[in-house]
């Protein structure tokens, strides 16, 4: 996914080669991951595309089929990978992921512990954030899920930045080898409060924890346990709404509430074919996208007490 040169620097500044993972962009709501192979062929409604014709092209290139249809060959960034990966579990999306990376204060060189791995959506972004010299150690209690995640990270070129382990963190805690080594810890567990005492031992002084919980009852119980070991405890809910903005006539476009959001009135006059002006007002209209994602979960952050 993230091509790594001998110095482990992440870079997309090279041409597509056989064996690369490419995100094929057909339209904004239709993308798929494709591994480029010597005799590979992609067939879709836009035509037939031979992989051999992609070799030597830069990521972001527009390629055409014999019938004139086209696709874009995009670099497999963490943002795009989150949209196309196989869902083995519920995943975190871009709004939550960006919030987590910032509030966990993750920078290149950090050591990050994660449990559980799940589908690896967040893990991918964590790996990019710690590159080139940091590392993500992620754990899942489910052996097959961990094996599938390991295969994905190998496939996407992240295996040098991510180590996947099989372990019941709720019951056993994190391995002792990480005592006092972690800069940040992320928990996505049914009972995160059971792992909090172990997290306190793993974090360096002033380290930060984030626990993701879909239910507020989980948050309440976690915060009670956090008070013993952590300070600066805060919980957030990230709600993302997207808007569609376009030019049109008032009354021609209504949202689900029967209302229109007017951002700016243009009232353009258009000349008809006979040279007369048509005074039909054109306005910039905006409405909330009805497909916008709502609640995914609560993010609770806490900082290790300095006297631990």
From TrEMBL:
Family the UniProt entry places it in: Belongs to the class I-like SAM-binding methyltransferase superfamily. TRM61 family.
Enzyme Commission code(s) on record: 2.1.1.220
Catalytic reactions on record: adenosine(58) in tRNA + S-adenosyl-L-methionine = N(1)-methyladenosine(58) in tRNA + S-adenosyl-L-homocysteine + H(+)
Name listed for the protein in its UniProt record: tRNA (adenine(58)-N(1))-methyltransferase
Origin species: Rehmannia glutinosa (Chinese foxglove)
Location in or out of the cell: Nucleus
Principal place of residence: nucleus
Domain tRNA (adenine(58)-N(1))-methyltransferase catalytic subunit TRM61 C-terminal: 69-303
Keyword terms of this UniProt record: Methyltransferase, Nucleus, S-adenosyl-L-methionine, Transferase, tRNA processing
Stored CDD domains: AdoMet_MTases
Matching SUPFAM superfamilies: S-adenosyl-L-methionine-dependent methyltransferases (SSF53335)
The organism's taxonomic lineage, starting at the top: Eukaryota, Viridiplantae, Streptophyta, Embryophyta, Tracheophyta
Top-level enzyme category: transferase
